[in-house]
Amino acid sequence: MAYTVGVLDEIRSILIQIGEDPTRNGLINTPKRVDHALRFLTSGYRMNPEQLLNSALFDVAYDEMVIVKDIEMFSLCEHHLLPFFGKCHVAYIPNGRIIGLSKIPRLVDMYARRLQVQERLTMQVAETINEKISPKGVAVVVEAQHLCMIMRGVEKQHSIAVTSSMLGAFKDNQNTRNEFLNLINRH
Length: 187
Description:
Blueprint: H1 5-17, H2 30-41, H3 49-53, E1 57-59, E2 66-77, E3 83-93, E4 97-99, H4 103-112, E5 115-116, H5 118-133, E6 137-146, H6 147-150, E7 161-168, H7 169-172, H8 174-184
Parallel strand pairs: 2-5
Antiparallel strand pairs: 1-4, 2-3, 3-6, 6-7
Helix pairs in contact: 1-2
């Protein structure tokens, strides 16, 4: 992996600013590790939905709800660069086209591996599915714990933020929405 000298210097500078010695044994390789971690945690910027999904769109007559639930996800809060993590639940009702099931978690990862707010992440997943296959409806629910709320600020260790984006039939039809919510809450 090619490291950017400027980035490594900035990380060393941060270590000095917080009172650490970047030349001590445990910190010598920290700038490279942080650079590597940040590149991975923001790798979603180097992906796009077309490349991710276009090879996995299929014409199918199936017209019932498709759900992929409990998708583990993690992201970095754009405000503090601290992680938030949890589960994403995605559903759609096909309208002649489906997405390969494994591509849905990959889509979640693509958007999660960017600097994010949970609300935008939720919307981006729903809107991308809606744009790519024009289903009868899309529903996305994200449940996450935010280290910026747990480790600092309000320090609420057990709080969980829940966001949803409902489009089409999930927004317009309460029965459809309820079916989705009931199915994702089954264990």
